[in-house]
């Protein structure tokens, strides 16, 4: 139909369409303006955020940011939706099983926030591909992955570039969402994943005690609940070698190990043998906890967008 329009009528049609879309988005996200004020609202609506890992935690973070009206999301994850993900991941539905997680989220976000540009990157982060995986500059990075090597790469890059970073700890093996909190990495306890990251950062700094002051972490001090025997064959064995515990066992020492062993409990007395892995597949998980981790991470990302000094980050140029 548009091919029959004259140039003037086509321009008028485009302008009207754009105005209608803009008005619709204002109706969708106007509550944010009333909450934050005009200046902060405009910063939020122009924000560009990357989320690494869009599983049980990161998928909720991505959706919350889309519902917060951000302009652009970069979603990075190589996994596909599996039936076991339906229990805890927002994009995991019967209709999306087998689909790339980032693609399923792209489709979902398009219906929530049509004005948000979503770039899906089907890769896992590593030292050999970061920051090349990042297709554009971002205002905030959310690390919701469960591999300590990737977390180290992201933390060091964020520190070197002054990019505000929200680093998410282990949500697996937790039952109490009210105990999720945000704190400096130096103050984190009960989280072997973040403890391993902290030790590697110290090693990289040649033993310096000031490890990325201001690195904001989402974590829980709830003691980790071991998986029961009934679930060991279907979950723990498949995740041992690629889990968080892989790096914990390699690099943790001294006080970090003490902190970890004290934080794992066996409430039923029939716990399965585990290797320290705290990913959701290995330890078991509840959506009430993983979604809370994701929402808290999104809230912290919004706070960093509106107040960059909160992370001790330099203004981006």
List keywords for this structure.
single chain; 317 residues; alpha/beta; Rossmann fold; 7-stranded mixed β-sheet; two-stranded parallel ribbon; 9 strands; 12% strand; disordered C terminus
Care to describe what's here?
It is a single chain. By secondary structure, the protein is an alpha/beta fold. The protein has a single domain, classed as NAD(P)-binding Rossmann-like Domain (Rossmann fold, 3-Layer(aba) Sandwich), CATH 3.40.50.720. Helices cover 43% and strands 12% of the residues. The protein has helices spanning 7-36, 38-45, 58-67, 101-112, 148-161, 192-204, 232-239, 244-251, 255-262, 280-283, 287-306; strands at 48-52, 72-76, 117-121, 140-143, 165-168, 180-184, 216-220, 224-225, 264-265. Strands 3-2-1-4-5-7-6 form a seven-stranded mixed beta sheet, with helices on both faces. β4 (140-143), α5 and β5 (165-168) form a beta-alpha-beta unit. α5 packs across α6 (192-204). The radius of gyration is 21 Å and the shape is globular. The model is unreliable at 231-262, 266-277 and 313-317 (pLDDT under 50).
Distance between the terminal alpha carbons, to the nearest Å?
Answer: 44 Å
The number of E-state strands comes to 9
What series of H and E elements makes up the topology?
HHEHEHEEHEEHEEHHHEHH
Give the spatial strand order of the biggest sheet: 3-2-1-4-5-7-6
Main β-sheet: number of strands, strand sense, barrel status?
7 strands, mixed
Question: What would CATH call the architecture?
Answer: 3-Layer(aba) Sandwich
Which class do the helix and strand fractions yield? Answer: alpha/beta
């Amino acid at each position: 139909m548009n091919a029959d329009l004259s140039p003037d009528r086509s321009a008028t049609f485009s302008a009207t369409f754009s105005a209608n879309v803009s008005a619709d988005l204002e109706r969708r996200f106007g509550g944010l303006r009333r909450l934050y004020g005009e200046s902060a609202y405009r910063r939020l609506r122009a924000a560009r955020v990357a989320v690494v890992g869009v599983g049980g935690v990161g998928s909720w973070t991505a959706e919350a940011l889309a519902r917060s009206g951000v302009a652009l999301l970069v979603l990075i994850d190589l996994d596909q939706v599996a039936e076991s993900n339906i229990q805890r991941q927002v994009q995991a539905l019967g209709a999306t099983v087998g689909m790339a997680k980032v693609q399923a989220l792209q489709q979902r976000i398009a219906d929530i926030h049509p004005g948000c540009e979503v770039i899906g990157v089907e890769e896992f982060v590593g030292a050999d591909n970061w920051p090349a995986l990042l297709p554009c500059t971002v205002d905030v990075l959310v690390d919701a992955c469960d591999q300590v090597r990737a977390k180290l790469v992201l933390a060091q890059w964020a520190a070197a570039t002054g990019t505000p970073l929200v680093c998410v700890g282990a949500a697996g093996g937790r039952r109490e969402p009210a105990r999720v909190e945000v704190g400096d990495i130096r103050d984190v306890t009960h989280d072997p994943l973040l403890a391993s990251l902290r030790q590697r950062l110290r090693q990289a700094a040649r033993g310096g005690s000031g490890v990325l002051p201001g690195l904001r972490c989402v974590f829980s001090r709830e003691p980790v609940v071991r998986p029961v025997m009934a679930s060991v064959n279907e979950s723990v064995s498949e995740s041992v070698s690629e889990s968080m515990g892989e790096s914990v066992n390699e690099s943790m020492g001294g006080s970090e190990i003490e902190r970890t062993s004290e934080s794992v409990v066996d409430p039923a007395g029939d716990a399965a043998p585990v290797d320290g892995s705290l990913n959701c597949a290995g330890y078991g998980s509840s959506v009430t906890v993983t979604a809370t981790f994701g929402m808290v991470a999104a809230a912290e990302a919004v706070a960093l967008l509106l107040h960059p000094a909160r992370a001790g980050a330099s203004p981006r140029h």
